[in-house]
């Protein structure tokens, strides 16, 4: 007998599993289809984010930063030590345990909320039927509503074919059992910078090859300039305008060829990470008669509410337009389920925070100063350096700044950009304020606890209108 559900979700990543849980909480009979298996061959929920993306990379970033601090940052605190070493397999093992705990946690949440898990590959057929190909063969399930949340995978490039031995993608870069002496990274985006930082802190000589001439194009120009300076000082050799043209694995190393302003170049690495972005996983997701439209890059066409061209079929997360971010996918999943229940849920795509978890962290929400100027919007800008923050001084973490951008006419905050300690948390404060239409003056009038890093946001907001207390103001009110 064919199983019938109110909602069937294809994919158990941060978009899919959140949508499934929310649907079940709202009283909908829900199933979630997932095929991913861990290294032991067991079904692993959580998608790329929990298994080989957001969570494991942050575990390695945290471990590597603690090692860096132990080597170079403790002495100023009066902590004397000698001979600190890193057990790389233990570090990777810790990462694996965190992943296991979180993925099993999703399984527990599914059981607690009554979500049916169907193991296998999900494929949307005509009439909102879904084919599930799994360990027990092929099963057809029916649904009133289907949510496509199949996620994304690393982009492959012909000049550097991944073998997961010498040339690896972001997944392979999480599993190194020893520190490579010479590490190459193709791509100076979020993934490349984070993974490059991990292994650089542990002693690798890291060279980042970026085809674009501009560093972190999506970030505010002031932030990207500071980031390039800081990361270079930390030891990352970031080569802009360096387009990789070929590679050759020779034993346990790889020779990479690239072109830059000086012509053809070559460089040899022990490991090479290909981190040039991700592409949607829509291959074999849709039957030819499913009715769902996709573009030439594999993205599914949706409207502002993630509805596809087929009534009752939705798509969320990395398979649709917009930034490939776990939190964006999760909120899209919640919005879709709320709308299935008849609620008038919407999502504010203008206020999705972006974070790069290097050290210092880099984060922003809203618009950049350069984009606003290009739109002809007059703005006032306030900045506050962490070098003037008492809390940052106490933590010996004074690099970077907070930047607040406000409309010159209305004083409404249009963007918050941070590079420095706890940037992700500070930007989230900015996002909350902006969601409610806060002005720079409003932020400046709020009481911030002292001493905190949050005071940097407070001072930057005050600086927008020349009222900062702990730095010299550029203008008097």
- In whole angstroms, how far apart are the ends? 75 Å
Main sheet: strands, sense, barrel: 7 strands, mixed
Radius of gyration: 24 Å
What's the average pLDDT? 97
Q: Which spans have pLDDT < 50 for at least 5 consecutive residues?
A: none
- Give the overall shape: globular
Structural class: alpha/beta
Helical residue percent?
25-40%
Give your account of this protein's structure.
This protein is an alpha/beta fold and 477 residues long. It contains twelve helices and 22 strands. Strands 1, 2, 3, 4, 5, 6 and 17 form a seven-stranded mixed sheet that branches. The longest helix has 26 residues, at 88-113. It starts with a strand and ends in a 13-residue tail after the last helix. The mean pLDDT is 97.
Short description:
This protein is α/β, with parallel strands linked by helices and 477 residues long. The protein has 12 helices and 22 strands. The strands form 5 sheets. Strands 1, 2, 3, 4, 5, 6 and 17 form a 7-stranded mixed sheet that branches. The protein has a 5-stranded parallel sheet with strand order 8-15-9-10-11, with helices on one face.
What descriptive keywords fit this protein?
alpha/beta, seven-stranded mixed β-sheet, 477 residues, 22 strands
Topology of helices and strands:
Blueprint: E1 3-10, H1 16-25, E2 30-34, H2 47-52, H3 54-72, H4 88-113, E3 116-119, E4 121-124, E5 129-134, E6 137-148, E7 152-154, E8 167-168, E9 182-186, H5 190-201, E10 205-210, H6 221-234, E11 237-240, E12 243-250, E13 253-260, E14 263-269, E15 271-274, E16 278-280, E17 313-315, H7 326-340, E18 354-356, E19 361-366, H8 369-374, E20 379-385, H9 390-394, E21 401-407, E22 413-420, H10 423-435, H11 440-445, H12 455-464
């Amino acid at each position: 007998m064919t199983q019938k559900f109110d909602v069937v979700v294809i994919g158990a990543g941060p978009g899919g599993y959140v949508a499934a849980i929310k649907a079940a909480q709202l009283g909908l009979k829900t199933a979630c289809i997932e095929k991913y298996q861990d290294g032991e061959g067991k079904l692993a929920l959580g998608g790329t984010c929990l298994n080989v993306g957001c969570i494991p990379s942050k575990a390695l970033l945290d471990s590597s930063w603690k090692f860096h601090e132990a080597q170079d940052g403790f002495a100023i605190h009066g902590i004397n030590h000698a001979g600190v070493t890193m057990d790389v397999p233990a570090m990777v093992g810790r990462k694996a345990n965190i992943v296991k705990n979180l993925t099993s946690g999703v399984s527990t949440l599914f059981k607690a909320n009554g979500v049916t898990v169907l193991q296998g590959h999900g494929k949307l057929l005509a009439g909102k039927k879904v084919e599930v190909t799994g360990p027990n063969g092929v099963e057809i399930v029916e649904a009133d509503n289907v949510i496509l949340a199949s996620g994304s995978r690393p982009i492959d490039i012909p000049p550097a074919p991944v073998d997961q031995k010498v040339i690896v993608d972001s997944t392979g870069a999480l599993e190194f059992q020893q520190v490579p002496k010479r590490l190459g990274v193709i791509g100076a985006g979020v993934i490349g910078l984070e993974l490059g930082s991990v292994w650089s802190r542990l002693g690798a000589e890291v060279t980042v090859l970026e085809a674009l001439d501009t560093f972190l194009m999506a970030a505010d120009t002031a932030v990207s300039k500071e980031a390039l300076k800081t990361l270079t000082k930390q030891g990352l050799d970031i080569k802009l305008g360096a387009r990789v043209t070929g590679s050759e694995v020779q034993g346990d190393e790889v020779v990479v060829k690239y072109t830059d302003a000086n012509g053809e170049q070559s460089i040899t690495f022990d490991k090479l990470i290909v981190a040039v972005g991700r592409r949607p996983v829509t291959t074999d997701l849709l039957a030819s008669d499913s009715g769902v439209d996709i573009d030439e890059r594999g993205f599914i066409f949706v409207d502002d509410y993630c509805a596809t061209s087929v009534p009752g079929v939705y798509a969320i997360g990395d398979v649709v337009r917009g930034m490939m971010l776990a939190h964006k996918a999760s909120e899209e999943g919640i919005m879709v389920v709320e709308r299935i229940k008849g609620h008038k849920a919407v999502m504010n795509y203008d206020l999705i925070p972006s974070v790069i978890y290097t050290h210092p962290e880099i984060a922003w929400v809203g618009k950049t100063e350069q984009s606003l100027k290009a739109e002809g919007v007059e703005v006032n800008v306030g900045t506050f350096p962490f070098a003037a923050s008492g809390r940052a001084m106490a933590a010996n973490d004074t690099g970077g700044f907070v930047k607040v951008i406000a409309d010159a006419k209305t004083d409404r905050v249009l963007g918050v950009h941070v590079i420095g300690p706890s940037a992700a948390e500070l930007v989230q404060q900015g996002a909350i304020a902006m969601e409610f239409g806060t002005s720079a003056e409003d932020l400046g009038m709020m009481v911030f606890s002292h001493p905190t890093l949050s005071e940097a946001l407070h001072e930057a907001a005050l600086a927008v209108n020349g009222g900062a207390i702990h730095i010299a103001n550029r203008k008097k009110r």
